[in-house]
Amino acid sequence: MHMLNVNPDTVCRLIALAHVFHAKEAVVIPEEPTSPSDDWARQVLADHADDEVFQEFRSIIEDLEPDQQQEVVALLWLGRGDAALDDWAGLLVQARDDWNPRTAEYLIAHPFLAEHLQEGLDLHGYACD
């Protein structure tokens, strides 16, 4: 089992917030982002900048160190099936290369973020309560 630098409980909180955020009817996401720098993610979030759930989600992400933010992104990719657990190191390298300060926006812009993060945690042997 790979040790995560990010606290699994923190990821579980993000999963819970993502569930709430994506359940809101007003949230429409055109398509999954291919990279964290995509402009449309910023547009989606401009519409929800004052959303309390998103604000909490973003504050949790912003409280994480960059390497922890990168792990959350790598968990998303792992859970989405971009790579297998035995290429976790490769996912982390990719996440580090792609990292930018808009990690929260990038993450929340994935409509299946909660499911993918949950799957990523499951693969690491962690479960949310």
TrEMBL record:
Name the UniProt record assigns to this protein: DUF3775 domain-containing protein
InterPro entries with a match to the protein in the record: DUF3775 (IPR022254)
Organism: Pseudomonas zhanjiangensis
